[in-house]
Design brief:
Helix 10 crosses helix 11, helix 11 packs parallel to helix 19 and helix 15 runs parallel beside helix 16. Helices cover 29% and strands 23% of the residues. The protein has 775 residues and is α+β, with helices and mostly antiparallel strands. The model has no long low-confidence stretch (mean pLDDT 96).
């Protein structure tokens, strides 16, 4: 971890309004679709209508003869040109101990398709409409094969194999803990609680669908790709080295404004690779823009984890052992994080904020004939926390304990910190019982009974949900590089490899630099999304502020140190006698001084520059307590969230207003997962939820007022800022909180469990069946 001077200022705690908003809200954003046509060609992708089939033949002659068509490409063309495949991490083993093996993910399918929506051919034409029209003239003959869409069904004997080399469809597996010790604890336990749970498959819903533009610079011959990517550096490396097989220095990736990322935009997609390939082949600018349906059928999905979770407890509600068996769907191909999410990231937090002495987790990553599963806000951690928090409420109800009391019995205590959980992850800080107590007061816990009574008079069922969550943040990369420049024009420019996509990084970084250097915030320029200026790990896993922000703080310190050295020479004084304050370097005890920007004017290139690296000691562990109240109309099954209160520990919040907004957004997505959203395929692998007519996301009037309180009583100890990641927390605490509230409301009817999404039809049917049993 970087050690910074104690007198450094980072602008922490200042609710500065977003600097980005004036530009974005007045239509001055620079999204890919805002870029001028400039005679660009358009690429359109023809997708497979089948979930599993052999490609017998592809006849492109009619399409190629269509007016305005410049090229038609097939998978065979790319193989002939030695175009590479999209790589994934092959670091796990299969259940039999053999190394994992996966089907190659090509830009265009070759010989076989494995999910409906997989790109099969691409047309490049002078207009988007011309490319789309010509694609309809491509004749593809398929030999349709059996398919499987349910990960649980995919593991059963006789299920169709997605990839011939993995006949049981289990691409990888992991286990944690002591199975025998856990079994012994279950045998002697006073109480055993078990739940079958599904974290259903979800479709990320960014405001802006994926798009890309590629061109070859005429002067340098370098390939330039404009794309939406949370990780511009790795996107460049994948495109150059893995796909096009050329030096990464010959490719420049540029990322402008991104209309939402949510983890879906973390890597290179086949469409991006095709645009780049076509631009190189044709020597022309080529662009592609996905429709919303392209996102549904061709983008990565999230979640898709089916689990059985079990607690063994003593008579006082203390968990003696915790057992989870999970099957994580990966889809037909393995995205970059496709196996890491269920096998590693979920288990990292699966024990939650609790001191659970014995665990046994078994997880299998299973292929199906569906779109690939990748990162989606939280990536594994929402799934893990969902299991333990649903079990906590179920156990409290079964034993007859207050849901707060059972949590307090099992919390990691302050004296146990730093605490190593069951899978070896170290929680450096936290005050879990304190968070619960504070949230209960703010949520008016004691007033719940009166509100429930009032709802009952209206004929409504009323319930309360509680969740204590913890989140692992960092993206497994604990360093980030930045460069900082003071210019002769009186501006400070920051280049960072992290990527803005709605978090407000321009604002946060600017206020940190402004506070550290003592200059006005309107003189700071933050530049991201250009691999020629800065490459880093990027923005995933809520790492931008606590890792990238650490690098920003280091760079401000480095710039001051370099300025002091320059000033000592110019003012003929020792470095130790040079004091920096508010843009001026002064010889202590004298009136001799020189300005930072005056120093910059005298440097090569008329700027004073430093390249810096920030390093943290490990992940951060944001956590908190969410409490909600829901009402259900038993005649329709409609659930409304009427109250929502959170207390969130994000350590030191640099900009509390932005953090609060991040929590709001995460909770909204959590409400979507709990009540509305869910991907559905038919048995033949056709996506039934391929548009917003079929896939429901929460609207503004579905979201209640969300009361967010930030608690900084346990700052992070793994970085010098004391900050913890915050971008995904709401999506981790939200789903189990809402689900627990619904189950609490339904419990008076004897309903013990339902799987999300808790749609009106599903809830209404459960109520109807429960009432029929009682009669």
């Amino acid at each position: 971890m970087n050690i910074l001077p104690g007198n450094m200022r980072f602008g922490a705690g200042q609710p500065i309004k977003r600097l980005e908003d004036q530009r974005l809200l007045t239509g001055k954003g620079q999204f890919i679709d805002d870029r001028p046509e400039d005679g660009a060609l358009w690429l359109h992708v023809l997708r497979s209508p089948h979930a599993h089939a052999r490609i017998v033949s592809v006849d492109t002659s009619a399409a190629a003869d269509t007016p305005d068509v410049k090229a038609v490409y097939t998978g065979a063309d790319l193989v002939a040109d030695d175009i590479g495949t999209l790589p994934t991490l092959m670091v796990f083993m299969r259940p039999d101990g053999s190394p994992m093996t996966v089907p190659p993910r090509r830009l265009l399918a070759h010989e076989i398709v494995r999910f409906a929506g997989e790109p099969v051919a691409a047309v490049v034409a002078t207009s988007r409409v011309a490319a789309q029209t010509a694609a309809e003239a491509i004749a593809v003959e398929y030999d349709v094969l059996p398919s499987v869409v349910d990960p649980v069904e995919a593991t059963k004997p006789g299920a169709p194999a997605v990839w011939a080399e993995v006949p049981d469809n289990i691409v990888a597996a992991m286990s944690y803990g002591d199975a025998a010790a856990v079994e012994a604890a279950f045998t002697s336990a006073a109480h055993v609680v078990s739940l079958d749970l599904v974290n259903q498959r979800l479709v990320p819903s960014a405001m802006e669908p994926r798009s890309s533009i590629a061109e070859v610079d005429r002067k340098s011959g370098r390939l330039i790709l404009h794309t939406q990517s949370q990780t511009p550096g790795s996107t460049r490396d994948l495109l150059a080295e893995a796909v096009l097989k050329r030096p990464k220095e010959s490719v420049r990736v540029l990322v402008g404004d991104i209309g939402g990322g949510f983890g879906q935009k973390t890597s290179l997609y086949p469409e991006d690779g095709m645009v780049a390939y076509a631009a190189v082949k044709l020597g022309r600018k080529v662009r592609w823009r996905g429709d919303r349906t392209d996102e549904f059928v061709g983008g990565t999905h999230g979640r898709d984890l089916t689990s059985t979770g079990e607690f063994a407890l003593d008579a006082k509600g203390r968990v003696l052992a915790y057992r989870v068996r999970s099957i994580g769907g990966t889809g037909a191909y393995i995205s970059g994080a496709g196996t890491i999410i269920p096998l590693v990231l979920g288990p990292f937090v699966q024990s939650g904020v609790y001191d659970l002495p014995l665990v046994h987790y078994e997880i299998k990553a299973v292929m199906t004939n569906t779109a690939p599963v990748g990162a989606y806000r939280g990536a594994g951690r929402p799934e893990g926390v969902f299991i333990v928090e649903r079990l906590m409420d179920a156990a409290a109800r079964q034993i007859g304990m207050d849901p707060r009391a059972i949590r307090k019995v099992n919390y990691v205590k302050p004296a146990q910190l730093p605490y190593t959980n069951a899978v070896g992850q170290v929680y450096d800080s936290g005050a879990f019982a304190h968070m619960l107590e504070r949230a209960c007061k703010l949520a008016d816990w004691d007033g719940f009974a009166a509100r429930k009574k009032a709802a009952r008079k209206k004929g409504l069922l009323y319930g309360r949900g509680l969740t204590s969550y913890i989140e692992w943040t960092g993206g497994r990369a604990h360093t980030e590089k930045v460069s900082l420049h003071a210019t002769a024009e009186g501006r400070v420019i920051l280049h960072s490899g992290t990527q803005a996509m709605g978090q407000g990084l321009q604002t946060t970084y600017s206020q940190m630099v402004a506070a550290s250097l003592g200059i006005s915030i309107d003189r700071i320029d933050v530049v991201q999304g250009d691999t020629d200026l800065a490459t880093g790990f990027g923005s995933v896993g809520s790492r931008s502020l606590f890792v990238g922000g650490t690098a920003v703080a280091v760079s401000a310190n480095d710039l001051i140190a370099k300025a002091r050295e320059k000033a000592s020479n110019m003012l003929e004084a020792s470095v130790e006698d040079i004091e920096y304050r508010d843009g001026w370097l002064t010889v202590v005890g004298t009136d001799k001084r020189i300005g930072l920007f005056e120093i910059a004017k005298k440097q090569d290139g008329a700027r004073l520059s430093v390249d810096s690296e920030g390093e943290v000691d490990g992940p951060s562990w944001p956590n908190g307590t969410h409490i909600c109240e829901v009402e259900i109309d038993p005649e329709t099954g409609v659930t409304r969230v009427v109250r929502y209160t959170t207390v969130d520990d994000v350590g030191v919040a640099v900009n509390p207003m932005l953090v609060t907004g991040q929590v709001h957004g995460g909770v909204a997505q959590g409400i979507g997962q709990a009540l509305y959203e869910g991907v559905a395929y038919d048995p033949e692998g056709q996506l039934l939820t391929a548009s917003y007519q079929d896939y429901c996301i929460p609207r503004a009037d579905d979201i209640p007022p969300i009361e967010v309180t930030l608690d900084d009583s346990a700052p992070c100890r793994t970085n010098p800022l004391g900050a913890k990641g915050c971008g995904e927390s709401g999506a981790i605490g939200g789903p189990p909180c809402i689900a627990n509230g619904v189950m609490d409301a339904l419990s008076e009817l004897g309903i013990k469990t339902l799987n999300t999404p808790l749609s009106p039809l599903k809830v209404w049917q459960a109520i109807r069946e429960a009432r029929a049993v009682r009669v």
